Amino acid sequence: MTQIENAWGAGPGEGYEALAAPFRPIFAEIAAEAVRRDLERDLPHKAIRLLKEAGFGAVRLPVEAGGKGASLPQFFNLLIELSAADSNITQALRGHFGFAEDILNTKDAARRALWFGRIGRGEIAGNAWSEIGTGAALECFSTNVAEKDGRLVLNGAKYYTTGSFFADWIDVGASNAAGEDVSVAVRREAAGVEVVDDWDGFGQTLTASGTTTFRDVAVAPDDVVIDDDRFKYSAAFYQLVHLATLAGIGRAITADVAKAVAERRRTYTHASAARSSADPQVLQVVGRIRAAAYAAGAVTLQAAASLERAYSAHFVDDAEAEEKANAIAELEAAQAQTVVSDLILDASTLLFDALGASATKKPAGLDRHWRNARTLASHNPRIYKHRIIGDFAVNGTPPPYQWRIGASAG
């Protein structure tokens, strides 16, 4: 069924249904095993392999480079559909899609050709940027790339290395000998790379967002890029991946609660109908959840349109216009974040109001929706976004494009 037939609204762009059609059977296969994987903590190697083989990792690349030529709104709508199947998969691929977006934006023709070839062949990249420990937030990375015995080598340790366990490459944030921030790409299976699945969060448990260490890992000079050259709307892009994931969780909640209500036979003496499926109060809860999921998707796609404008502005020789487009994209992503996270966190709790106590049994797996949504909503805290939005509204203050976490200077 199309999005319109499912009452989620039309997909972005005239070609969206044709773009999504080949992936939907894979999404359905992923969804069929989602609860079991969560209960058994079975990492989604097969699911990610199926997506790689179908070219999902190259969906933003031009068709002539082996991609699908998807616009950013189309891309984020695909992520909503994937997240409705299993939000862990989207999160595990978040680093890859950010890396691919950077390649799309690079004006270095040789680098673009190199990575278009790799990504177009189905190779994917993991993420390794967050430092371990209490390093100061504004300091250079402790992970570093330096010359040793006539070659470049990478040394250091990272946490929250989401997706690296499943990847062919790892995109690493590091410092070079000059103290500059750089992006370093290394093979996942290279000598000296160790990826450990020690993520112990209560949500998004299958993303393998654990520790990766690098010990004298050989680095090709062509795979080291000054961080200032990376795409400027990256913070908004990465945030929107979270929001698309949350919107997809909303759709998954909708499907699960609707199915459970339709099948439910037990009721209460003080209920409004003999069956939950005919009880107006229960139906009201289900409707409220579905409306929240619908709104979350619509808000996410509205913000995605601002990223498309920022992407387009990058290729016009007008620095001021590009700067303005990036600022607006960041603001729209922040405004969307505060609303979407509230909608889906609320829905993940409301679903239990439509069901009985049996819905809390572990085999049902319904708790995963709140755990996953709460974990996602804890990234890039919402409390700061309201202040940033308000500061822009009142004082015209532009938003910060990037942020780091670490110990304060004091």
TrEMBL record:
<dbReference type="InterPro" id="IPR036250">
    <property type="entry name" value="AcylCo_DH-like_C"/>
</dbReference>
<dbReference type="GO" id="GO:0005737">
    <property type="term" value="C:cytoplasm"/>
</dbReference>
<dbReference type="GO" id="GO:0004497">
    <property type="term" value="F:monooxygenase activity"/>
</dbReference>
<feature type="domain" description="Acyl-CoA dehydrogenase/oxidase N-terminal">
    <location>
        <begin position="28"/>
        <end position="122"/>
    </location>
</feature>
<feature type="domain" description="Acyl-CoA dehydrogenase C-terminal">
    <location>
        <begin position="242"/>
        <end position="379"/>
    </location>
</feature>
<dbReference type="InterPro" id="IPR006091">
    <property type="entry name" value="Acyl-CoA_Oxase/DH_mid-dom"/>
</dbReference>
<comment type="similarity">
    <text>Belongs to the DszC flavin monooxygenase family.</text>
</comment>
<keyword id="KW-0285">Flavoprotein</keyword>
<dbReference type="GO" id="GO:0006552">
    <property type="term" value="P:L-leucine catabolic process"/>
</dbReference>
<protein>
    <recommendedName>
        <fullName>Dibenzothiophene monooxygenase</fullName>
        <ecNumber>1.14.14.21</ecNumber>
    </recommendedName>
</protein>
<keyword id="KW-0560">Oxidoreductase</keyword>
<dbReference type="GO" id="GO:0050660">
    <property type="term" value="F:flavin adenine dinucleotide binding"/>
</dbReference>
<dbReference type="InterPro" id="IPR037069">
    <property type="entry name" value="AcylCoA_DH/ox_N_sf"/>
</dbReference>
<dbReference type="Pfam" id="PF02770">
    <property type="entry name" value="Acyl-CoA_dh_M"/>
</dbReference>
<keyword id="KW-0503">Monooxygenase</keyword>
<keyword id="KW-0288">FMN</keyword>
<dbReference type="Pfam" id="PF02771">
    <property type="entry name" value="Acyl-CoA_dh_N"/>
</dbReference>
<dbReference type="GO" id="GO:0008470">
    <property type="term" value="F:3-methylbutanoyl-CoA dehydrogenase activity"/>
</dbReference>
<dbReference type="Pfam" id="PF08028">
    <property type="entry name" value="Acyl-CoA_dh_2"/>
</dbReference>
<dbReference type="InterPro" id="IPR013107">
    <property type="entry name" value="Acyl-CoA_DH_C"/>
</dbReference>
<keyword id="KW-0547">Nucleotide-binding</keyword>
<dbReference type="InterPro" id="IPR009100">
    <property type="entry name" value="AcylCoA_DH/oxidase_NM_dom_sf"/>
</dbReference>
<comment type="pathway">
    <text>Sulfur metabolism; dibenzothiophene degradation.</text>
</comment>
<dbReference type="InterPro" id="IPR013786">
    <property type="entry name" value="AcylCoA_DH/ox_N"/>
</dbReference>
<feature type="domain" description="Acyl-CoA oxidase/dehydrogenase middle">
    <location>
        <begin position="128"/>
        <end position="217"/>
    </location>
</feature>
<dbReference type="InterPro" id="IPR046373">
    <property type="entry name" value="Acyl-CoA_Oxase/DH_mid-dom_sf"/>
</dbReference>
